[in-house]
Design goal:
Length: 184
């Protein structure tokens, strides 16, 4: 196998690796080593004093971080409790639908149970929503109860339910009739 010559590209790669390795090496200064450069050459008393101050600052920062951590944990627990207090259908909705829609957007139209079933079916077919049978049932029931159809919507859905099959049957009948006629 031919040995490759050292190219500028190799050198660049080595420099990048060295730069990354250098970081942790200089990041781990102990407190004794750490003093800002402008504070070098102080007498021993002041130096100790400064170090105590720095140690105190670090202690405070640690305490603040712990406090923040505690608060986040508390928030998380409260949200979890709130979520668990919701009706199961609402919870499933938040879990599966709100990634893509704001809840507000879902409240815009009321639908019958069949209408909501159709929407959820479409979301499963075309948007990759993955629901268990129970979740589907809960979501559809929740939506139908919380966002029932308006009178106008019922009229429209009923009209569609009648009109769509009528159009299909009518079309087929018309076509058969037309074919029979034109054959004579
Ligand atoms: C992966 C993203 C995604 C998820 C998750 C999702 N949807 Fe949708 N949804 C869409 C997109 C995109 C549209 C617009 C295209 C369409 O209507 O099919 C839409 C449209 C809708 C509409 C409007 C339909 C209309 O004709 O008025 C409703 C209502 C709806 N989604 C409800 C839901 C419900 C309920 C769930 C939970 C079971 C859900 N979506 C989960 C992406 C998503």
């Amino acid at each position: 196998m031919r040995r490759r010559a050292l190219t500028p590209r190799h050198l660049l790669a080595a420099a990048v690796v060295a730069a990354f390795c250098w970081q942790p090496a200089v990041a781990g200064l102990s407190i004794e080593e750490y003093l800002p450069p402008q504070e070098e050459g102080l007498d021993e008393e002041t130096r100790l004093q400064r170090m105590r101050e720095i140690e105190q600052e670090r202690e405070e920062a640690r305490r603040r971080a712990e406090e923040r951590e505690r608060q986040l944990e508390e928030d998380r627990r409260r949200r979890q409790a709130e979520l668990e207090a919701l009706p199961p259908g609402h919870r499933a909705l938040l879990e599966h639908c709100v990634a893509c829609h704001e809840e507000r957007a879902l409240r815009r139209t009321g639908r019958s149970r069949i209408g909501w079933r159709g929407v959820v079916w479409r979301m499963e077919m075309f948007q990759g929503v993955d629901l268990s049978r129970d979740e589907r049932r809960l979501i559809v029931r929740y939506l139908a109860e919380e966002h029932p159809p308006t009178a106008g919507r019922i009229a429209r859905e009923t009209a569609m339910a009648v009109a769509a099959p009528a159009a299909v049957f009518g079309g087929v009948a018309f076509w058969l009739l037309y074919r029979r006629r034109s054959r004579k």
